[in-house]
């Protein structure tokens, strides 16, 4: 993929995540300098990056849920560690 061409779908699929992130940053910086074509390319790369990250997060199991406390025992949230008293 050359620096001035938008990547094809096949090229996007072959890019590793780190390279995709680097390219997205480069194209976004070009877009911020006013290069008109760079806006669309940067957006396309960022969308692909978000899609991949969202897919990885969906594969992770959710954190284990703790048993809910009764609402009226909110003051029993945690026991403070006991501090020995001085004689």
Explain what this protein looks like in three dimensions:
This protein is mostly helical and 87 residues long. It has 3 helices and no strands. Helix 2 (17-32) runs antiparallel to helix 3 (36-59).
Name the features:
single chain, 87 residues, mainly alpha, 0% strand
How would you summarize this macromolecular structure in one to three sentences?
This protein is an all-alpha fold and 87 residues long.
Order of helices and strands: HHH
Largest sheet: none
Helical/strand content category: mainly alpha
- Beta-strand content: under 5%
Average per-residue pLDDT, rounded, comes to 81
Tally of individual helices: 3
How many β-strand stretches?
0
Terminal Cα span: 76 Å
Radius of gyration: 25 Å
Helix content: 40-55%
| Low-pLDDT segments | none
Instruction: Report the principal-axis shape.
Output: elongated
List the helices and strands and how they pair.
Blueprint: H1 9-14, H2 17-32, H3 36-59
Helix pairs in contact: 2-3
């Amino acid at each position: 993929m050359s620096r001035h061409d938008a990547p094809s779908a096949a090229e996007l699929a072959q890019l590793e995540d780190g390279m995709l992130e680097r390219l997205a940053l480069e194209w976004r910086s070009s877009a911020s300098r006013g290069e008109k074509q760079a806006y669309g390319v940067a957006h396309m790369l960022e969308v692909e990056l978000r899609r991949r990250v969202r897919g990885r997060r969906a594969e992770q199991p959710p954190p284990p849920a703790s048993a809910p406390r009764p609402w009226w025992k909110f003051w029993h949230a945690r026991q403070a560690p006991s501090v020995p008293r001085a004689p």
